[in-house]
């Protein structure tokens, strides 16, 4: 018996390793031959899974581009990307491609689970018809469920093991099968009555974050105009022991999830004559943040009698969040683009990102003469005290230098 994983990215690879560590044989399938070749050589492309860790489970993992090898698996977990297309509509291409492939390989008695984030109805309305092209009936000849991945890359306190896992099967028996499989790697399981509840619950989680980040970002812009320190405001509000949850302002939203997933629901809602105002508004406010940050950069330089053009500006942290090297939708990229357009002499420091070929830039060590350092992403290992010491002025978009109380630092 073995567990099959389709899509070996930020979600699929940690899942593969978790099952292998739990003593299961794992077959990982990906269409990216280079990724598969790397994994076979024991080289991980996901920061949360160091290569040594991957190699420690090598005996129980097999990586391939051949989906047909999944025929023998007890369960197949699908973790392919769910991006937006150029019109910001759901692009189910990878998901439907994977389903079509699976239709040719699934076997009677298997369990198939979709883990990718998507709109309610995807499992039932899109996956079932494609998988049933196999001649097998979902919920009868094979079990089918949706179970959203909640992994937070870079996080160590909550992992696959201790993060409760939502599971919604097509039938009660499907749910029971999926609960049994996930019970081997997860301490806490949350069964729900249908795949649709699971699909919508994952979107609620992401929309909740997106909306609250947008709220605090908008208040940060207002507080800036009013001359009020938003960080002190948040600290004060967060002293309330109930009814308040802390969210912090920043340069905008990045990553594969928050800027993308909510719009899966926006698209689906149109079918029901609904326009999801909160999602749209949050997206609009968060997308504006790099431009607000640019304005603050211009003001910081202006205070020193300098224009953007020709000033040496060091962007500290370019990944979309601390502790990872993931650049997807990172607001730092937008800020760098805007600064370069204005003639800034831009450099960056990010130990997680060796180079940004699109800008012809490479990671630089701290210490060079800098007119303005802009802390865009706060990585845990970066010494922000040195950033302050070695720059003539600092703009801190993450509030990590507040404790230093240095007069040359301006906060978001
Ligand atoms: N990254 C996160 O933090 C996170 C967290 C929770 C949920 N999710 C969701 O999980 C899903 C996967 O995200 P990810 O970050 O792992 O993406 P990813 O791009 O890192 O990995 C996806 C992998 O799937 C492969 N793939 C694409 N089409 C395929 C196919 N037809 N057959 C086999 N492999 C295929 C790609 O080559 C890639 O290696 C998305 O729906 C995402 O929204 C991501």
Descriptive notes:
With 412 residues, the chain is of the alpha/beta class. It contains twelve helices and 15 strands. An eight-stranded mixed beta sheet has the order 3-2-1-4-5-6-7-8, with helices on both faces. A five-stranded parallel beta sheet has the order 10-9-13-14-15. It has a two-stranded antiparallel sheet with strand order 11-12. The protein is globular and about 70 Å long. Bound molecules: nicotinamide-adenine-dinucleotide. Nicotinamide-adenine-dinucleotide (NAD) binds next to helix 4.
Shape: globular
Each distinct ligand: nicotinamide-adenine-dinucleotide
- End-to-end separation: 54 Å
| Number of strand segments | 15
Strand count, sense and barrel status of the largest sheet are: 8 strands, mixed
> Which range best describes the helical content: under 10%, 10-25%, 25-40%, 40-55%, 55-70% or over 70%?
25-40%
Strand arrangement, largest sheet?
A: 3-2-1-4-5-6-7-8
Strand-and-helix sequence, N→C?
EHEHHEEHEHEEHEHHHHEHEEEEHEE
Mean pLDDT: 96
Topology diagram in text:
Blueprint: E1 2-6, H1 12-21, E2 25-29, H2 33-40, H3 51-56, E3 61-64, E4 75-78, H4 93-103, E5 111-114, H5 122-131, E6 143-146, E7 165-169, H6 172-182, E8 189-192, H7 195-226, H8 230-237, H9 262-270, H10 277-303, E9 312-316, H11 331-341, E10 345-349, E11 355-356, E12 361-362, E13 372-375, H12 384-389, E14 394-396, E15 409-411
Parallel strand pairs: 1-2, 1-4, 2-3, 4-5, 5-6, 7-8, 9-10, 9-13, 13-14, 14-15
Antiparallel strand pairs: 6-7, 11-12
């Amino acid at each position: 018996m073995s567990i099959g994983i389709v899509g070996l990215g930020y979600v699929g690879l940690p899942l593969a390793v978790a099952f292998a560590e739990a003593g299961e044989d794992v077959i990982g399938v990906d269409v990216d031959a280079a990724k598969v070749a790397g994994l076979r050589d024991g080289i991980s492309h996901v920061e949360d899974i160091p290569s040594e860790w991957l190699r420690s489970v090598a005996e129980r993992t097999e990586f391939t581009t051949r989906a047909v090898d999944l025929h023998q698996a007890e369960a197949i977990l699908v973790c392919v990307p769910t991006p937006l297309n150029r019109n910001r509509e759901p692009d189910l291409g990878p998901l439907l491609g994977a389903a079509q492939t699976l239709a040719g390989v699934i076997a009677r008695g298997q369990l198939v689970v979709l883990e990718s984030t998507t709109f309610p109805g995807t499992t039932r309305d899109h996956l079932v018809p494609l998988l049933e092209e196999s001649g097998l009936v979902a919920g009868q000849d094979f079990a089918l469920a949706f179970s959203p991945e909640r992994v937070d890359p870079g996080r160590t306190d909550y992992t696959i093991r201790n993060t409760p896992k939502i599971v919604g099967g097509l039938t009660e028996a499907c749910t029971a099968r999926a609960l049994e499989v996930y019970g081997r790697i997860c301490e806490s399981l949350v069964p729900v009555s249908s795949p649709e509840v699971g699909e919508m619950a994952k979107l609620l989680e992401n929309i909740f974050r997106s909306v609250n980040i947008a709220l605090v970002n908008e208040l940060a812009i207002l507080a800036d105009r009013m001359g009020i320190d938003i960080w002190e405001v948040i600290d004060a509000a967060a002293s309330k022991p109930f009814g308040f949850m802390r969210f912090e302002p920043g340069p905008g939203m990045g990553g594969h999830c928050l800027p993308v997933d909510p719009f899966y629901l926006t698209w689906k809602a149109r079918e029901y004559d609904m326009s999801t105002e909160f999602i749209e508004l949050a997206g609009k406010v968060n997308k504006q943040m790099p431009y607000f940050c640019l304005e603050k950069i211009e003001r910081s330089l202006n205070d020193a009698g300098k224009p953007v053009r020709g000033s040496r500006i060091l962007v500290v942290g370019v990944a979309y969040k601390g502790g990872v090297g993931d650049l997807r939708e990172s607001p730092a990229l937008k800020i760098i683009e805007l600064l370069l357009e204005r003639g800034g002499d831009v450099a960056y420091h990010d130990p997680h990102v060796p180079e940004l070929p699109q800008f012809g830039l490479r990671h630089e060590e701290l210490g060079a003469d800098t007119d303005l350092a802009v802390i865009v992403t706060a990585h845990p290992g970066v010494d922000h005290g040195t950033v302050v010491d070695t720059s003539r002025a600092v703009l801190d978009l993450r509030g990590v230098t507040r404790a230093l109380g240095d007069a040359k630092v301006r906060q978001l």
